[in-house]
Specification:
The complex is a heterodimer of chains A (115) and B (114).
Chain A (H helix, E strand, L loop, with lengths): L4 E3 L2 E4 L5 E6 L6 E8 L3 E9 L2 E5 L6 E5 L5 E5 L8 E8 L10 E2 L3 E5 L1
Parallel strand pairs in A: 2-11
Antiparallel strand pairs in A: 1-3, 3-8, 4-5, 4-9, 5-6, 7-8, 9-10, 9-11
Chain B lengths: L8 E5 L4 E6 L8 E7 L6 E6 L2 E4 L4 E4 L5 E6 L8 E8 L16 E6 L1
Classes of the chains: A mainly beta (115), B mainly beta (114).
Chain lengths: 115, 114
C-alpha cells in the first residue's frame, strides 16, 4: 500500500513569507502528526491531528498551524517565515490513537530553506 | 514522558551483531519501548516495539529486563546499509505520545564499516 506522501519535497522561501506543506497519510490512518527536524534541536513534535481535530501541540509559536481534512489529509502552515524555520518537516500517520501498540509511519519530509 | 539515554555513536563492522542499549530509569507502567531508524534526509522508520522480556521480528530483537529500566536493540549481522541513526522512545503507545508527541532524543549514530 502507498506510504505517507509529503509535498513538496523541497522548498525555498524568503523571510517573511508564508508556506503550506501537505501530507497524505496511509489510507485508513486517521492520526497525523507533524515534526520539525534540525541539526541543533533534533526531532521536535509540532502537533497531532485526529478526526480533523488538533489533539496535541508541541512548544512552537503560533506562526505554526495546521489542519486536517475529512479524508485525513493534513496541511501545515508557517507564517512570517524566519531563517530559523529552515528544517526538515516530517509528517507521520498512525492507524489510531490510544492503542497500546501504535506504529507511526513517517513520510520522506519536506526540506524547507528560508533565505 | 520517561527520559531516555543512549550512546551518541557506535562503530561496528559488516557481519557483526550490534547491540545498542537505552536507559530509561523513569519508565512508567503503561509505557512501551519503541525503536526507530533514520537515514539522512528521510523520515524515521519503525523497527521494533516491546513492553517486557524479548521481542523479535525479521530485522531486530529487543531485550527488556524485568525492571524495564533499560532496553537493548540487537541487530544481527549488520551491513553497510544499517549505517543510520537509531532512536529509543519510551511512551504510552499513543501515536502522539501524549502532550509531547513522540519524544525523540539525540539517538545513536551507528556507523558500519567494511
Amino acid at each position: 500500500k502507498a506510504g505517507v506522501t509529503q509535498t513538496p519535497r523541497y522548498l525555498i522561501k524568503t523571510r517573511g513569507q508564508q508556506v503550506t506543506l501537505s501530507c497524505s497519510p496511509i489510507s485508513g490512518h486517521r492520526s497525523v502528526s507533524w515534526y520539525q527536524q534540525t541539526p541543533g534541536q533534533g526531532l521536535q513534535f509540532l502537533f497531532e491531528y485526529f478526526s480533523e481535530t488538533q489533539r496535541n501541540k508541541g512548544n512552537f509559536p503560533g506562526r505554526f498551524s495546521g489542519r486536517q481534512f475529512s479524508n485525513s489529509r493534513s496541511e501545515m502552515n508557517v507564517s512570517t517565515l524566519e531563517l530559523g524555520d529552515s528544517a526538515l518537516y516530517l509528517c507521520a500517520s498512525s492507524l489510531a490513537r490510544g492503542t497500546g501498540l501504535t506504529e507511526a509511519f513517517f513520510g520522506q519530509g519536506t526540506r524547507l530553506t528560508v533565505v | 514522558l520517561a527520559k531516555t539515554t543512549q550512546p551518541i555513536s557506535m562503530d561496528s563492522y559488516e557481519g557483526q551483531e550490534v547491540n545498542i542499549t537505552c536507559s530509561h530509569n523513569n519508565i512508567a507502567t503503561n509505557d512501551y519501548i519503541t525503536w526507530y531508524q533514520q537515514f539522512p534526509s528521510q523520515g524515521p522508520r519503525f523497527i521494533i516495539q516491546g513492553y517486557k522480556t524479548k521481542v523479535t521480528n525479521e530485522v531486530a530483537s529487543l531485550f527488556i529486563p524485568a525492571d524495564r529500566k533499560s532496553s537493548t536493540l540487537s541487530l544481527p549481522r549488520v551491513s553497510l546499509s544499517d549505517t543510520a541513526v537509531y532512536y529509543c522512545l519510551v511512551g504510552d503507545g499513543y501515536s502522539g505520545g501524549g502532550a509531547d508527541g513522540l519524544t525523540f532524543g539525540k539517538g545513536t549514530h551507528l556507523i558500519i564499516q567494511p
